[in-house]
Amino acid sequence: MSGRTDSVAGPAEAEEAERAEPVVRPEEDAMDAVDDAEFYDEARRARWLATGTGALLTLAGVAAALLRLTGPAPALVPAAYATGAAVCAAAALLGARGRTRRALWLLIAGTMIMALGDQFD
Question: How many CA atoms lie within 13 Å of 37's alpha carbon, on the beta-carbon side?
């Protein structure tokens, strides 16, 4: 005697039911399309933000390096600003290619290098 009392189908019908494809409703497809569109929009915004922030910090680091180079600051200060600017430029490139998490960490590192250069002044 079988343990299942709700089943009237034999083993052949049960196997067919298991092999059948799941029923997909049109509203579920529409919701998946909306979720995909939101995901791509969010990814595009992250790429633009990483690229723009990296470019802005690169320009700021280059400008600070040039200003400190013309002043009486030690040579280590403009070198630190230039190095930080180079790291931020690499972050901008990574952000443009979609590697936003690595770009964020490089932006943090580049800003810290520039801040370290400011401490030497």
Answer: 6
